[in-house]
Amino acid sequence: MLTGSLLAKTLPLPIAIPLAFISHFVLDSFPHFGYKSGKISNKRLFYAVEILDFTIGALLILWLVLHHHYTWVLSGFIAFSPDLVWIYRYIFKERFGRLQIDYNSSSITRLHKRVQKYERYWGLVVELAYGLSVFMLLG
Ligand SMILES: [Zn+2]
Questions:
Q1: What whole-number distance in Å separates Cα of residue 41 and Cα of residue 33?
Q2: Distance 83 CA to ligand 1 centre (A)
Q3: Which phi and psi (to 5°) does residue 88 adopt?
Q4: Distance from Cα 79 to the centre of ligand 1, integer Å
Q5: Phi, psi of 33 (to 5 degrees)
Q6: Is the Cβ–Cβ distance between 36 and 120 less than 8 Å?
Q7: CA of 94 to the centre of ligand 1 (A)
Q8: What are the pLDDT digits (tens) for 67-99?
Q9: What Å distances lie between residue 22 and 29, 79, 101, CA to CA?
């Protein structure tokens, strides 16, 4: 989301929006928080990181709206949007034990899954360092 916002800050919106979407897949190809096997091995850490992530995201959106940076919010949401499929998957498959659609049927989702080769718990450090750097550039 931060990357999408930074793109909207620095580029015209018609360029920033597609780049924001693409940036998601580029950043997912770098080490970031997650588990190597794709299975959540430490649920407490996973939930703590997800709650922290959600809280920081919500505060960022609030801060951007209060400063009237609506296009930064839009571009940030576009950058985040590919992960909506994982939220859907978690809610309907992991949580309730059923999945309405085959999320592997989309070529974008298959690409999304394929680029995430470096999900590791220590990727949290990489994410924090990157996130703080981009946040400082936004300010
Ligand atoms: Zn992703």
A1: 12
A2: 5
A3: -60, -45
A4: 9
A5: -65, 135
A6: yes
A7: 17
A8: 999 999 999 999 999 998 887 777 776 666 665
A9: 11, 7, 24
